[in-house]
Amino acid sequence: MQNQKKFFMVITAAAAVLVLAFLGYFWLRESPERETIFDRVVSIPKELVLNVPFPQPWCDELPGLKKGFVDVANGGKLYYEEEGNGIPVVLINVGPGLSHQFFHSYFSQLKDSVRIIYYDQRGTGKSSADATGKTYTVQQAVEDLDGLRAVLQIDRWVVLGWSYGGLLAQCYALTYPERVMGLILGAAETGLPSNVTNSREQLFISQAEQGAIKNISTMAQEGKLTPAQKCYNQYLSGDWKRLSYYKPLLDESMRACLYDWSPAPGFVELISKALYSRSPESVQTINLQDKFADFEIPTLILEARWDLSWWDPKRAEAMRKNHPHAQVEMFEKSGHKIFADEPGKLFDLLRKFLHKAETTQITYKPGNRIEWPAPVSDLVRKLALAKSMPKNADQEKLFLACYDEALRDNAIDDHAWGRIANHFLQSKSNFDKCLTALQRLEVSKKKLDPETWQTLGYCVKAWQGHMLDLLGQRAEALECYREALKTNNGQSDNCFSGFMLQIDKKWLEDRLKTPFKWD
Predict the structure, then answer these.
(1) 377: how many CB neighbours lie within 10 A of its CB?
(2) Long-range contact set of residues 311-320: C-beta below 8 Å, sequence gap at least 24
(3) DSSP states of 307-372 as a string?
(4) Average pLDDT for residues 274-293, to the nearest whole number?
(5) Greater confidence, 34 or 402?
(6) Where are any strands of DSSP class E within 34-125?
(7) Neighbouring residues of 183: CB distance < 8 A, sequence distance ≥ 6
(8) 379 DSSP assignment
(9) Up-side HSE of residue 291: CA atoms within 13 Å toward CB?
(10) What is the pTM of this model?
(11) How many CA atoms are closer than 13 Å to the CA of 289, on its beta-carbon side?
(12) What is the dihedral of CA 209, 210, 214, 216, to 10 degrees?
């Protein structure tokens, strides 16, 4: 009996120590004695630290963490974790490109009353990758998220998205409002067309620190430092001041260095098309303007005054106006990771909001659901068919945007390239763009329809020669005309509508003598 009593006392004491350590960990994060960006302390190490500590990921240390994989549509497999019991809250991580580890271990303090669900998006972390890149879209990410919900047998949940995850959270809430009991947007990408924010990331980093951080990056690019060594030494040289208000604890920074960033090849580039701030000229971006005018599902918007890469008054005001029914909270002593800088204030606020979300009755489905961008080929086809209409400056701008998008992705078909080339021919300008479109048309046609190229390819080569002549590149034009003559077997054709130019063998022979000119 005495031994049992002693054993119980030891266990109780150990539990008390763990609880105090856990609470102390979060208290230290917010302690007024901790260094802040305003202290402007410069303490660059004299020598690089090569013996980098490797703390284990929080996934291996958090007790009671459930782990697993779920199959979702289009061949995807998502890794997820969950802990706690209560109202279900799914956390959508930053990026595009970071893993669920971004949220560890901060949100664990909610597990006494919340079922916390972490997951890696397709193409990040432990979830499946797509070698083709075709499923790396925000629309697919929305479907993946709902697939996760279905497998976990959750009827309705609270969706929390941070930064890029905030864009995904908004898109999900517009697509599946009946599945959302609350929406939390932390330092979120707005999805608005005027969302370009001037970065202030270097505001509190001295010139000496900037120089040291740059040198470390150069050494890493040259293969002299591992990614972990690069990240660790940049942290020591002041790089933490870009994203934080309080200086992160060393183990926080190292875990972020080692485990947060985990995109598959091509994932970041393809997903970034959806972000206005990353790709303002893109025709594939998502526009959420006015989509939340009648959205009365409880919504909480979290902003940080010292989010140096993201926050400014105009952006925050635009976000507030686009969510007229939302609760907006500003954190005065936080950077991008509010939950790391002001955890006490944040998690008290989240508990109150989650209670509100759980008890609010929603009896309608919000309208104004999201409109996903059409494929570039479809937009080109639509614009080409409208060519008989009066010329419109906005249409011309959109056509140029389609051209730029097609160049970046090279994912449109030969018919679309033909329409683009024909458009620039009609205007008798932009000869360089017309030439590029014709060259892309050639590559696509040879690959997808080689038989047609054998019979009509000479016409495309002839028009390439015409554009080269108009651009003053006579030698290159002659090469195109000669190649066209080789493949012309007496045919006569006008391969672009609107031009009375029957290109045949004689026409091509004349072009060898006289450069092409517009009449």
Answers:
(1) 17
(2) 311/187, 311/197, 312/197, 312/198, 314/194, 315/190, 315/195, 315/197, 318/190, 318/192, 318/194, 318/195, 319/185, 319/188, 319/190, 319/192
(3) -TTT--HHHHHHHHHHSTT-EEEEETT--S-HHHHSHHHHHHHHHHHHHHHHH----S--S----P
(4) 73
(5) 34
(6) 66-72, 76-83, 87-92, 114-119
(7) 158, 159, 169, 170, 173, 297, 298, 299, 300
(8) H
(9) 21
(10) 0.78
(11) 7
(12) 20
Beta-bridge partner residues of 158: 89, 182
Residues 278, 284, 286: CA angle, nearest 5 degrees: 75
Q: How far apart are CA 280 and CA 276, in angstroms?
A: 4
State the residue for tokens 């072009």: 511
φ, ψ of residue 90 to 5 degrees: the values are -100, 135
Q: Is the pLDDT of residue 215 over 80?
A: yes
Mapping DSSP onto H, E and C, the string for 150-208 reads HHCCCCCEEEEEECHHHHHHHHHHHHCHHHEEEEEEECCCCCCCCCCCCCCCCCCCCHH
Q: Which of 164, 159, 54, 61 is nearest to 116 (CA)?
A: 159
Give CA 309 to chain center in angstroms.
15
**Structure confidence by residue, pLDDT tens digits, 79-100:** 999 999 999 999 999 989 999 9
Q: How confident is the model over 64-68, as a mean pLDDT?
A: 94
Give one DSSP letter per residue of 432-494, joined into a string: HHHHHHHHHHHHHHHHH-HHHHHHHHHHHHHHHHHHHHHTT-HHHHHHHHHHHHHH-SS--B-
Rounded-to-integer distance, Cα 278 and Cα 401, Å? 15
**Helices in 62-176 by DSSP H: which ranges?**
138-151, 164-175
Take residue 416 and report the two structure tokens written for it: 């679309």
**β-strands 299-304, 180-186: how paired?**
parallel
* Amino acid symbol at 78: L
Contacts by 446-449 with C-beta closer than 8 Å and gap 24+?
A: 448/413, 448/414, 449/414
Q: How far is CA 190 from CA 124, 198, 517, in A?
A: 22, 15, 49
Question: For residues 498 and 508, is the Cβ–Cβ distance under 8 A?
Answer: no
Residues ≥6 apart with Cβ < 8 Å to 422: 384, 496, 497, 498
Closest CA to 111 of 298, 331, 347, 358: 347
Sheet containing strand 87-92, edge to edge, reads 66-72, 76-83, 114-119, 87-92, 157-162, 180-186, 299-304, 327-331
Strand 180-186 vs strand 66-72: parallel, antiparallel, or unpaired? Answer: unpaired
CA distance 288 to 138: 13
Phi-psi region of 384 (alpha: psi -120 to 50; beta: other; left: phi over 0): alpha
3-state DSSP: the chain helix, strand, coil percent, rounded to 5?
Answer: 50, 10, 40
| Helix (H) or strand (E) segment spanning residue 304 | strand 299-304
> Cα separation of 393 and 398, whole Å?
9
